[in-house]
Amino acid sequence: MPTSPSPPPLITVMGVSGSGKTTVGAALAQRLGVPFADADDFHPAANVAKMSAGTPLDDADRLPWLQTISQWLADHAATGAVVSCSALKRWYRDILREAAPTQFFVHLDGSPDVVARRVAGRPAHFMPASLVASQFATLEPLGPDEAGIALNLGLPVDELVARAYTAVTTTADRPIHVNGKEGPS
Q1: Is residue 86 a contact partner of residue 17, using CB atoms and an 8 Å limit?
Q2: Considering the domain boundaries, does residue 5 fall inside one?
């Protein structure tokens, strides 16, 4: 069984809305024994109102939000931490790495149809299903030089957590990138 990494990991569980970031991120944080935060909780009221109205955020909306998340991660460098955050574009991830350069990304990737069904099934959330297509249009997968792994969001949560945990704990000394998705199509 792998041992816990040293120094403690800083992890962003990323993907489009409805991919399972919060569920997987919280479970991964619990398994690692580190704090967890949902990036949705860092959105200012104006961003939430915009998305609730069915309007996608633009980069100007996202920049201060991403900087706040990056700082939260940096503040937890001594303890390690997991955050769930869409981190859809490479430059968004670059902003997240500015204050927390050692961060590892777990990309929950999958079919737009599956994600749209999930989002439609959670009516109390501020992100409407009508914005799922815009999220997929914005999404830039992890690059080969980015520390991270892509996992098929269709896998059971326990399996996603186990695979993410293994990737994080076995790559503490050297970041890896797994091209393509792991798991069933």
Answers
A1: yes
A2: no
What strands, in cross-sheet order, belong to the sheet with 36-38?
A: 36-38, 81-84, 10-14, 104-109, 148-152, 177-182
Calculate mean pLDDT across residues 14-36. Answer: 93
The domain tally of the chain equals 1
Q: Grade residue 25 by pLDDT with cuts at 50, 70 and 90.
A: very high
* 0.90 surpassed by pTM: no
Cα-based distances in Å from 103 to 106, 144, 182: 10, 15, 20
Structure confidence at residue 29 (pLDDT): 96
114 within domain boundaries? yes
What are 52-65's pLDDT values in tens digits?
787 877 889 989 89
Decide if 73 contacts 67 (C-beta within 8 A): no
CATH code at 116? 3.40.50.300
Average predicted confidence (pLDDT) for the chain: 83
Query: What is the C-alpha separation between 131 and 136, in angstroms, rounded?
Result: 9
Question: How buried is 78 (Cβ within 10 angstroms: 0-12 exposed, 13-18 middle, 19+ buried)?
Answer: exposed
Give the type of residue at 142.
L
Burial class (CB in 10 A: 0-12, 13-18, 19+), 55: middle
